[in-house]
Amino acid sequence: MKVVHKTPTITKTKSYYYLLPFLGKPRSFFGPDDADYQVQLCNVYLADELLPGEQGIFLLMRYDDKLYKDLDKAFKEIDCFRKSYEPDKYHTMYVYDIPASHKQSYDYYLAGQYSKFFKEHKEQNFEFHKSPRTTVNNNLHLNFSYRLKYVFDRDELGYIYYDKVYGLKVPRDQEVEGIVSLDKNTYKKEYRLRDALELSKQE
Q1: 198 found inside a domain
Q2: Are 29 and 74 in contact (CB under 8 A)?
Q3: Does the residue 169 lie in any domain?
C-alpha cells in the first residue's frame, strides 16, 4: 500500500469568483492554474461550519513542498489577514476580514444585488478574471469575465444565458444571477481529507 494524496474535485464557489478580487491582488498572486483544479488555491468560502459565527473571506490552500512557504508568507502579508489554521494535514485555511473599502459591495454580494457593486469593484473583478493566462483553466475565468459584465450591467444577454441555465424565464425586474447560497459557500467537515481517502493499492 502506498499513501497517495488525492484532492477531491470540488466545484469552485461563487465566492471564488466574486470575493477573491476583493483582496486586491492579481490572479497570478494566488498560484498557478491547472485544468483539473489541482492547484494551491483550492477554493474560497464565506465561512467554515466548525467556526460558527465567523464570517469573512476564507481561502483554502493545498500544501505543496515547493510553493507553500512562499505562498504562506505572501498570504499572511495581505492587509486584511485575520488568521490561518489547518483543517487537515494537507491544507491551510487563510481567513481575511472584509476590506473596509469593499464592505458595501460585500453586503450587496450577500444580498444577490450584483448590479449595485461599486463601479470600481466591478472593474476590479472584471480585470481579475480577464487577466491573461496560458492554461486550460483560463477558459473558466474568461467565460466568467464575459458573463460578469452581463450580471453587473443587468444586460439582456445575461438574462437569456440564465434562462437557458435555469430552464425558465428569469424575471427582468430582478438581478440576472441568483442570490449566493450560504450553504454552498461554507466549508464543510466532509471536505477535510482523512487517511482512509488517501490509501490506494499499487500493483
Answers
A1: no
A2: yes
A3: yes
Backbone torsions φ then ψ of 134, nearest 5 degrees: -115, 0
- Within-domain flag for 109: yes
Q: What φ, ψ does residue 85 adopt, rounded to 5°?
A: -160, 170
Residue with cell 477558459: 139
CA angle 181, 16, 169 (to 5 degrees): 50
What is the amino acid identity at position 72? D
Could you read off the pLDDT of 106-134 as tens digits, one per residue? 999 999 999 999 999 999 998 888 755 54
90-105 average pLDDT score: 95
Which DSSP letter does residue 160 get?
H
Name the domain count of the chain: 1
Domain presence at residue 111 = yes
pLDDT tens-digit map of 33-63: 654 333 578 899 999 998 999 999 999 988 7
Quote the CA–CA distance of 22 and 55 in Å, as a whole number.
15
What value, to the nearest 5°, has the Cα angle with vertex 25 and ends 68 and 69? 10
Cβ neighbors of 6 (< 8 A, separation 6 or more) are: 197, 198, 200
Identity (one letter) of the amino acid at 179? I
pLDDT for residue 168 is more than 80: yes
Domain that holds residue 126: 2-192
